[in-house]
Specification:
The complex is a heterotrimer of chains A (199), B (478) and C (364).
Chain A (H helix, E strand, L loop, with lengths): L1 H22 L3 H21 L3 H25 L4 H5 L2 H23 L21 H10 L3 H22 L11 H5 L3 H4 L11
Helix pairs in contact in A: 1-2, 2-3
Chain B lengths: L2 H27 L6 H20 L6 E3 L4 E3 L1 H27 L5 H18 L4 H20 L5 H32 L4 H10 L5 H18 L7 H8 L2 H26 L4 H24 L4 H21 L3 H28 L15 H4 L1 H15 L5 H15 L3 H27 L12 H19 L1 H11 L3
Antiparallel strand pairs in B: 1-2
Helix pairs in contact in B: 1-2, 1-4, 2-3, 2-4, 3-4, 3-10, 3-13, 3-18, 3-19, 4-5, 4-10, 5-6, 5-10, 6-8, 6-9, 7-10, 8-10, 8-11, 9-10, 9-12, 10-12, 10-13, 11-12, 11-17, 12-13, 12-16, 12-17, 13-15, 13-16, 13-18, 13-19, 15-17, 15-18, 16-17, 16-18
Chain C lengths: L1 H17 L6 H37 L20 H11 L10 H17 L18 H22 L3 H32 L4 H7 L15 H14 L11 H4 L9 H26 L18 H19 L7 H28 L8
Helix pairs in contact in C: 1-2, 2-10, 2-11, 3-10, 4-5, 4-10, 5-6, 6-8, 6-12, 8-10, 8-12, 10-11
The chains are: A mainly alpha (199), B mainly alpha (478), C mainly alpha (364).
């Protein structure tokens, strides 16, 4: 009973937050609503005893991705009136896409593949069952190949991002650390031997 | 299947990734002038990986890595072609990049990553690996298009490519998720088995199929999902256009075969209709719009769209010989496309892109030999016998007729006649018009040699199409 | 202690009052609630006296006396009642909301800073059995909660409608995200070494006949250092306090805050400090294990060892603050990305090799 209450609480909050993401006017508020939405879905995962996924969702999406998102949104001066201009014009297209998506999602859910034979209880595991360990074993055995490809994609993303953004700008005054460290006394200090003067 | 044998079959991919990492480290730590070392090492990487494919040419189809990876004759042939093509692309691009001050070590590294992605797509045996390989390829291509930061056109092209490409990936992923939702499996053969066992039509499957075909059409650049092609072809540096216009077509073909033939063959009745529509629209749209182009890169982009239509014609018969004809077509097309963009690169000079049709005026006077090569390329593209391009069209149309779609075959012939107009116009410009300027063509010896070989290959293969066709049919399991 | 209270006090009490069965939800909830209150009360008490210690230590370092006036009923007691006076002052001060500030977020920000700081304490074990929530993924949970701390700061900076506050919050966002990565990798090393994400298991894995030589500070020495220094950066303490940077951007993200709202940020910062200290003790210094394991009496594990180690690190926090000058911003970034990150990644490999090779005495 308690689990159901918790579920409906978080599910309701999730829907509310998700709606806010697209309805609130201020982009920062929208991003924060998205954070709330992530949080609620993490809570729902926790209810399903998928603690690893829940925590990683918070760690990666809330803790890192959304922070950078906020970082960018806050620095941009977004003109909302321009963004909202075409709203009524594109509304029919948007609605038809939404209906299409909803219908196909409905078909997926009612296809009979996602029921557990009338028993809607989440899987219960023993207390010493470790989600993290099971996921790790799956990733490094059956899904090793896709996992490694994903690693290559991340490496590529780093290379691509750096090659697109890194440029040498001669006009900035960035200190060259390697030069600072390599400084020797000889080039900068001259010892002068002076006799003490007497009057 | 022991781990050692699995790793041995994976060796080309593993070697390529290791070599790419080595190139990356060497390039960032070792400040080599003009990136000569990076360039040479990248070529070495391609030679090694292609060599490894050749060394263990598979006779049978083997599924390894828990069914995510397949090694079969088709994958080996496509990987070898891919490796050779990229090697030639490297030859063509180096001087161009040097001359246009775009040379960066990352260019070659991104290209190697793209090749890795394509190899993964070619050998993909599950929905997951198809998608991951595609992402690896696309991400590298987006970055390569955007590499010329100072050019507004390139940035716009990169933006369009990225947004539409991401949309297409999303579509594909959505379709994949539906198929997974219905069948409960990611492996393509298992998916085919599941679908084969279904007796009644499932609306959801058709939904998933539509999304997958749309995703494929986006990536191939078929009408009406072709909007990005002309802008990207025109906006990117020509060396990048050269790459995008060649190797990824092979990967896209492999992806189509893996998804449609390996995984969704039981649904062939559904996707054949979609492909016919896409193919006819592409041939019509591509050929008609290409006529009014004055920029040769843009013209070749529309010609690509038209050729993609032909490629799809090969798939609609949904049988092995049909697939073989499509494979023949894609290999021939990449060869021709590479030569054409190679010519554009050859004619370019310091800071100037020879991407206007006027740049080809009177080429026969400036350099009769290269005018001849271009003539071969254009005749072949137009489908004039005896060049190889004719045979490619011939085999495809034969398959279409065999499959009973007579009117589609008729349309294909009509549109290739329409298309011949703009290819032959270039020949006319080269041989019968006065040159706009008489500057000598300046390029390295290797570039001239490889380009000449490229052109002659089209001529020679045209006299012996049987060899390549046998190879393709063998690849398809006959 | 908790178990005793539940069995002998709360359960009978709840049984009598609510006429519920022995281990019904009500008892369970009450039990958890009481535990939470006890932990929070202890943390708040420690917070209060850490501020006092901060002032005393700084005074000692700078050859001053520090707070020594406030006492109870005329007894000065070295100023021990100072934190109470500070608290009362903060509560009665007005919270000023700047013009055109985003009111909701302005008020929400301190709560968002405080919430995760306390939430992380849920999985901290104080000894073998004394832990609020003994979950399997404890270490992950800690990383997740500490990664949330940044929200309070960036929202505060943005909602204040002030450029100094905003600059502070931007600095903070970049800094915390950067150091979180090396911190996470340091924790990965601990995870690999202990083979568990459960904090209790991690402590027990460090037990052995060599006492303090068995603890992970030795095989994971670079990580021990990286973790603590990253902890300094995560809590925005000197020498990484560019987020506040009094000399550049007045007080950074909380420049517009006053009264109890400001005090809430203060509590969050100190709670995080205490958290980092206790975590460093648990992960690298064997938690409640005695350094003299094997010797009678002093070799017994006890909560006091843990508290003593925590106090040591807390003192280190204060000592560093009053000793080192502030880093320049680009130096902070360089340290995080170009020094710590490579070290941690290399050490993940080294640790894995040590675990696979079963290097004694830690991994045999």
């Amino acid at each position: 009973m308690i689990e159901q209450t918790v579920f409906y609480f978080f599910a309701g909050l999730l829907l509310l937050a998700a709606t806010m993401v697209i309805t609130v006017k201020n982009p920062v508020h929208a991003a924060l609503s998205l954070v709330l939405a992530f949080f609620c879905s993490a809570a729902i995962w926790l209810l399903l005893q998928a603690e690893f996924l829940a925590i990683v969702l918070i760690l990666v999406y809330v803790g890192a991705v959304m922070v950078l998102f906020l970082f960018v949104i806050m620095m941009l001066d977004i003109n909302l009136t321009v963004l909202r201009e075409g709203f009524s014009r594109f509304l029919p297209v948007g609605i038809s896409v939404a209906v299409l998506m909803a219908v196909s999602m409905g078909l997926v859910i009612t296809s009979g593949r996602f029921t557990t034979g009338g028993n809607y209880e989440a899987l219960k595991h023993a207390a010493d069952y470790s989600n993290t360990r099971e996921l790790g074993i799956a990733l490094f055995t059956d899904y090793l190949y896709p996992f490694e490809i994903a690693g290559a994609i991340l490496l590529l993303a780093i290379v691509a991002a750096i090659s697109l953004t890194l440029r040498k700008r001669p006009d900035t005054k960035t200190p060259k650390v390697e030069k600072q460290v390599a400084v020797h006394r000889a080039g900068h200090v001259r010892l002068v031997r002076m006799e003490a003067e007497k009057e | 299947m022991t781990l050692t044998t699995e790793l041995a079959l994976l060796a080309p991919e593993i070697a390529l990734l290791i070599m790419t990492s080595i190139v990356l480290v060497v390039d960032s730590l070792y400040d080599n002038p003009d990136r000569v070392l990076t360039y040479k090492l990248s070529q070495l990487a391609l030679i090694i990986t292609t060599g490894l494919v050749l060394l263990q040419f598979p006779e049978v189809s083997t599924h390894i890595m828990s069914g995510h990876f397949v090694s079969d004759p088709m994958s080996a042939i496509l990987k070898i072609v891919l490796g050779l093509m990229t090697l030639i692309v490297f030859f063509y691009s180096y001087d161009y990049l040097l001359e246009h001050e775009l040379l960066k070590g990352e260019y070659f590294i991104l290209m190697l990553f793209a090749v890795l992605g394509m190899q993964i797509m070619i050998s993909a045996n599950s929905l997951l690996t198809v998608y991951l390989g595609l992402e690896l390829l696309s991400l590298a291509l987006y970055a390569m298009v955007a590499m010329n930061r100072t050019s507004a056109v390139a940035t716009e092209a990169a933006m369009k490519y990225f947004v539409l490409g991401a949309l297409a990936s999303g579509m594909l992923l959505y379709g994949i998720s539906m198929l997974y939702g219905v069948s409960g499996t990611l492996e393509l053969p298992a998916l085919a088995t599941y679908l084969g066992a279904q007796t009644e039509a499932n609306l959801l499957l058709v939904f998933g199929l539509v999304f997958i075909v749309v995703g494929l059409a986006f990536k191939l650049g078929a009408v009406p999902f072709h909007m990005w092609v002309p802008d990207v072809y025109q906006g990117s540096p020509t060396s990048v256009t050269l790459f995008i216009g060649t190797a990824p077509k092979i990967a896209a073909f492999a992806m189509a075969i893996r998804l449609l033939a390996d995984g969704l063959q039981p649904l062939a009745g559904d996707w054949q209709g979609m492909l016919i529509v896409l193919a006819v629209l592409s041939m019509a749209g591509g050929n008609l719009i290409a006529i009014s182009q004055s920029n040769i890169k843009r013209m070749l982009a529309y010609s690509t769209i038209a050729h993609v239509g032909f490629l799809m014609l090969g798939l609609i018969s949904a049988n092995q010989t049909g697939y073989a004809s499509a494979m023949f077509y894609v290999i021939v097309y990449t060869l021709m496309s590479m030569g054409s963009f190679g010519m554009v690169i050859l004619l370019g000079r310091n800071g100037h892109e020879a991407d206007n049709l006027d740049d080809f005026k009177g080429l026969a006077e400036r350099s009769p030999w290269f005018a001849f090569i271009m003539l071969i390329l254009m005749f072949s593209m137009a489908g004039v016998p005896p060049f190889i391009g004719f045979w490619a069209k011939w085999f495809v149309i034969k398959e279409v007729i065999a499959a009973g779609h007579l009117w589609v075959a008729a349309l294909a012939v009509i549109f290739s006649v329409v298309g011949a107009y703009y290819y032959l116009r270039i020949v006319k410009l080269m041989f019968f018009d006065k040159p706009v300027q008489m500057t000598a063509i300046k390029s390295s010896q290797e570039m001239r040699m490889v380009l000449s070989l490229n052109g002659l290959a089209i001529l020679i293969l045209g006299f012996m199409p049987g060899f390549l066709m046998t190879l393709c049919i063998e690849a398809m399991g006959f | 202690m908790f178990g005793f209270l539940r069995d002998n006090v709360w359960s009978p009490l709840a049984g009598a009052v609510l006429s519920q069965p022995y281990d019904g939800y009500a008892v369970y909830l009450l039990d958890v609630l009481i535990k939470i209150i006890v932990v929070v009360a202890c943390v708040l008490f420690t917070f209060a006296y850490t501020t006092y210690a901060e002032r005393k230590v700084s005074a000692w370092i700078q050859l001053r006396i520090g707070p020594n006036r406030v006492g109870v009923f005329g007894f000065r007691m070295f100023g021990l009642a100072q934190p109470v006076a500070d608290g009362i002052k903060a509560i009665f001060k007005e919270i000023i909301i700047p013009t055109r500030a985003s009111k909701l977020l302005f008020v929400l920000a301190p709560i968002l800073a405080l919430g995760p700081a306390f939430a992380a304490w849920a999985v901290i074990p104080f000894n073998d059995v004394m832990v609020l929530a003994d979950i399997n993924a404890g270490l992950l949970y800690i990383i997740a909660m500490t990664s949330l701390a940044v929200y309070g700061i960036i929202i505060a900076g943005w909602a204040s409608n002030s450029k100094y506050a905003f600059l502070g919050s931007l600095r903070s966002a970049a800094q915390i995200v950067s150091y979180e990565i090396s911190m996470g990798f340091a924790l990965v090393c601990v995870l690999v070494a202990a083979g568990s994400l459960n904090l209790g298991d991690i402590v027990n894995a460090q037990s052995g006949k060599y006492g303090f030589l068995n603890w992970y500070w030795l095989p994971l020495l670079p990580m021990f250092y990286v973790y603590f220094v990253s902890g300094l950066a995560e809590t925005n303490r000197l020498p990484f306090d560019v987020v506040e940077g009094e000399s550049e951007i007045v007080a950074g993200f909380h420049v517009e805050y006053s009264g109890i709202a400001f005090a809430t940020f203060f509590i969050a910062e100190y709670t995080n400090m205490i958290l980092i200290s206790i975590l460093t003790s648990i992960l690298f210094l064997g938690g409640w294990l005695s350094p003299f394991q094997g010797i009678p009496v002093v070799g017994a594990p006890s909560i006091f060892w843990l508290l003593g180690k925590t106090a040591l690190f807390l003192f280190l926090f204060l000592w560093i603050r009053w000793t080192f000058p502030r880093y320049r911003y680009d130096q902070i970034m360089r340290l995080g990305w170009k020094v710590f990150l490579p070290i941690t990644i290399v050490w993940v490999v080294v640790t894995s090799v040590m675990v696979v090779a079963k290097v004694p005495p830690w991994f045999s």
